[in-house]
Design goal:
Layout: E1 2-6, E2 11-17, H1 21-28, H2 33-42, E3 45-49, E4 52-58, H3 59-77, H4 84-96, H5 102-106, E5 111-112, E6 118-119, H6 124-135, E7 138-142, H7 149-162, E8 168-173, H8 186-207, H9 210-219, E9 222-226, E10 238-242, H10 250-257, E11 265-270, H11 284-292, E12 298-302, H12 312-331
Parallel strand pairs: 7-11, 7-12, 8-9, 8-10, 10-11
Antiparallel strand pairs: 1-2, 2-4, 3-4, 5-6
Helix pairs in contact: 1-3, 2-3, 2-4, 3-4, 6-7, 7-8, 10-11
Protein name: PhoH-like protein
Subcellular location: Cytoplasm
Organism: Thermodesulfatator atlanticus
């Protein structure tokens, strides 16, 4: 229940009473840590006494903080386990879109990992991304590191595999530094490209027990390979993920996209600000963005710093580098 107390035209106080004392304590966090996150995010002051809360600040900020608390409490009532990072993500979502419904995002279960960790979207764009993968055969996820592009695609792939909707998962990465044009002697090639495939293995082992993932790899149900190994193949009933796609050439991107067979779907992820190709070569991802938007069956989802779900410092680091990039453009 909510009440408003007006103090002056600029500052208001919102009072809210929570029905369940135990859930209210979960909302507040250990030593009020969750409330401190909300205070910092919206520049408000929050006081609590038992199950009663008062939020004071400028009208718009106070309304956002109150809406965040109301929706987080609703998540707790729905049985959601609230972590400190969830509170951080919730403040970003409400700041970005005050009309957003946190339940639509946080209760969207993508996959339950081997450690019983529930994998769900944490931002509006991540929810859009998940919906796009469900509704399109080819999806491009474009944006900075830490936005969950590859991780969520992997979770969706494993979910589809476990439900029997696809027969195999193919995880692909270009190995620019290792030299995609080197010979195909198995031992030499594996040694050269394996370090560049390691992030895909890391995500895989985070979601499946090591032994189970290893068995599926040995059976060929899950394949982790450099992009060069895709040439000449047709992949039917597969979920294919191309990671680091900004480092594909135009020819490689076309080659990859034309591998798609019957009952297959592909997710292509990349960050167009992190291209390692020689300057004379145009990124296949950049070209795909130019050529393929608007084609039925293909979706593009663009992430930004608001979607970073790593350590909070990562978002600030991205902002600092983006600011430096803008300064350089201004001086050019």
């Amino acid at each position: 229940m909510k009440e408003r107390v007006a103090t002056n035209p600029e500052i208001i106080t919102v009072q809210r009473t929570f029905e369940d004392n135990a859930l209210a304590r979960w909302l507040y966090g250990e030593k009020g840590s969750h409330l401190k996150t909300i205070e910092r995010a919206f520049n408000v002051h929050i006081q609590v006494r038992g199950n009663e809360m008062q939020i004071t600040g400028e009208r718009f900020d106070t309304e956002l903080a109150d809406r965040t608390c109301e929706q987080l409490y609703g998540l707790l009532k729905a049985g959601y386990t609230l972590y400190p990072s969830d509170v951080e993500y919730a403040t970003r979502i409400i700041s970005q879109n005050p009309l957003a419904n946190l339940k639509d995002i946080f209760l969207e279960t993508v996959f339950v990992s081997s450690g019983r960790k529930i994998i769900t979207p944490k931002t509006i764009n991540q929810k859009i991304y998940i919906d796009a993968i469900r509704n399109h055969d080819v999806v491009f996820g474009v944006g900075p590191a830490g936005t969950g592009k590859t991780y969520l695609a992997m979770a969706m792939a494993i979910s589809y595999f476990m439900r029997g909707e696809i027969q195999r998962i193919v995880l692909v990465r270009p190995a620019v530094e290792a030299g995609e044009k080197l010979g195909f002697l198995p031992g030499d090639m594996v040694e050269k490209v394996n370090p560049y495939l390691r992030p895909l293995y890391d995500a895989l082992y985070d979601m499946l027990p090591y032994d189970k993932a290893s068995r599926l790899i040995q059976k060929g149900a899950i394949e982790v390979a450099p992009l060069a190994f895709m040439r000449g193949r047709t992949l039917n009933e597969a979920f294919i993920i191309l990671d680091e796609a900004q480092n594909t050439t135009s020819e490689q991107m076309k080659m990859f996209l034309t591998r798609l067979g019957y009952s297959s779907r592909a997710v292509i992820t990349g960050d167009i600000t992190q291209i390692d190709l020689p300057e004379v070569k145009k990124s296949g991802l950049v070209e795909a963005i130019e050529l393929l938007q608007g084609i039925e069956g293909i979706a593009f989802v663009f992430f930004d710093k608001q979607d970073v779900v790593r350590h909070p410092l990562v978002q600030r680091i991205i902002e600092a580098y983006e600011g430096k990039g803008r300064e350089k453009k201004g001086l050019a």
